[in-house]
Amino acid sequence: MLTKELTSLVSSESGLSKKDTERLLATTTAILRENIMAGKTVQLQGLGALEMKARGERTIVHPKTGERTIVPSKNQLVFKPATNLKEEIKKF
Fold it and tell me: Per-residue pLDDT averaged across 55-74, rounded?
């Protein structure tokens, strides 16, 4: 789903104008982003949780050449779906 589609759906469901909906989504996205970048876990009721996790340095092996390479550590955005969403996905 694209942002334009989401804006249209939220606008029609909520009765807000498209301009107000765009501002609402932009503000929500900015707040979520700030909190994730600050190292906080963002939990969205019924959807799941977003959090930043550190992934440690690791060694990988090229399958054809057998050459070993070290992949440096990095931060990674992780999504953990809510339990009810997991159950719905299983039934889908």
Answer: 95
The maximal CA–CA distance of the chain, rounded, in angstroms, is 59
Under 8 Å between Cβ of 79 and 48? yes
- Name the phi and psi angles at 69, rounded to 5: -135, 140
The reply to whether the predicted model has a pTM over 0.90 is no
pLDDT at site 76? 95
If we measure between CA atoms, which residue out of 52, 46, 54, 57 comes closest to residue 83?
Answer: 46
**In the prediction, which pLDDT does 92 show?**
86
List the alpha helices (DSSP H) in the chain.
3-14, 18-37, 83-91
CA distance 92 to 89: 5
Q: What residues have CB less than 8 Å from 54, skipping those under 6 apart?
A: 73, 74, 75, 76
The pLDDT of 20-30, averaged and rounded, is 96
Question: What tokens appear for 61 in the block?
Answer: 């092996």
